[in-house]
């Protein structure tokens, strides 16, 4: 199992393929395993790297030091230890937030950035966003991690067609340490980089699922405001679109990667 040591923390990662470096960053309570179908597809043409964040998957971590900037520092350290000069980064949800942190803190290291179902802030504004926040806080306080995982699976991967994926995902998510999950969730609250987006110097791709819990229109506006931004909405999908519909997601991402194959900003 490949690992590096970053700030005294063992960081697990998957690596497969050859070519230009392509880094996949997972979401809250997830791990590199949720990128399995992207790893298989993109490793045919890219050097694919999928790490587990601190406190996630097979990586270690310290509850007291977990933050999104800390995760960005860890990924930067990973790239340096792997002697990777520049990489394209793809992040979903929390991973997209870390991707923005990474592009802001270390712009020379990021060739392109794709952000999936995430915005440049994690501050509830609409009633539904407040409801989701308060519901999640209630669940974390009174409900087991396994039960939360089951509820998330039913919501994010619904229906008979996704039954096998849902069962496998729920089994993985149920392994989360409760204290680590709570610390990771709390690290998201109030996070924002809206005032630092001008520091991102690479092409930016905002991908939204139609039924994500953050409005697709917000991501579309963000992409329109960014000088080198693009936006795509995947119809009929939910928050974990790379897992829910990997073929569709892979094709949309692959098309964007090829359109920007010569980006060297």
From TrEMBL:
Transmembrane segments: none annotated. The keyword Translocase does not apply. Residues 21-245 form the AB hydrolase-1 domain. One of its GO terms (molecular function) is hydrolase activity. Keywords: Hydrolase. The keyword Oxidoreductase does not apply. InterPro entries: AB_hydrolase_1, AB_hydrolase_fold, AB_hydrolase_sf. Pfam families: Abhydrolase_1. SUPFAM superfamilies: alpha/beta-Hydrolases. This is Alpha/beta hydrolase.
